[in-house]
Design brief:
This protein is mainly beta. It has one helix and eleven strands; from the N terminus they run αβββββββββββ. It starts with a helix and ends in a 10-residue tail after the last strand. It binds copper (II) ion.
Length: 157
């Protein structure tokens, strides 16, 4: 009887990791991260960005309040807005709210994670590790693919 219960528990624990490998969704408490990707940095460039969709499946709002990346001197959450006909990006103050039952998409030309003062160069086909810091859910370390991406974001500075 005990063995049966343990086996059932084992299956329950195994199942999310199997589905995670299939869909590339990373779950963390009530949060789910999809389509995480880091932009490959061009040779000589000191900046790059990362994008993803964060979904809150919980009943309470959470906030992405920070990001850490060991390959950059400074990592920030940025927004991008038109300002007098010019695209301008600025740090998101107070964190990025993820309302219950909603998704926030960080994408080219919009919200993004910004890495400045790169101390190494993330190249196409590699992977990198980031730590996302959430107000309620705490820290989540994710490994994401690095891909060459065109347009949408200024990668030279
Ligand atoms: Cu930026």
């Amino acid at each position: 009887m005990m063995i049966k219960k343990l086996f059932a528990l084992f299956l329950m624990l195994l199942w999310p990791s199997l589905s995670m490998a299939q869909t590339e969704t990373i779950t963390h408490g009530s949060l789910a991260i999809d389509r995480a990707v880091m932009r490959a940095a061009l040779p000589g460039s000191k900046v790059t960005a990362a994008y993803m969709t964060i979904t809150n499946n919980g009943a309470e709002a959470d906030r992405l309040i920070g990001v850490e990346f060991s390959g950059a001197k400074k990592s920030e959450i940025h927004s991008m807005e038109m300002d007098g006909g010019v695209m301008k990006m600025r740090p998101v103050t107070g964190g990025l709210e993820i309302k219950p039952g909603e998704s926030v998409t960080l994408e080219q030309g919009g919200l993004h994670l910004m890495f400045m003062g790169l101390t190494e160069r993330p190249a196409d086909g590699e992977t990198r590790t980031l730590t996302l810091i959430f107000q309620k859910s705490g820290s989540l370390t994710i490994t994401l693919p690095v891909k060459m991406m065109m347009g949408g974001h200024k990668t030279s500075s």
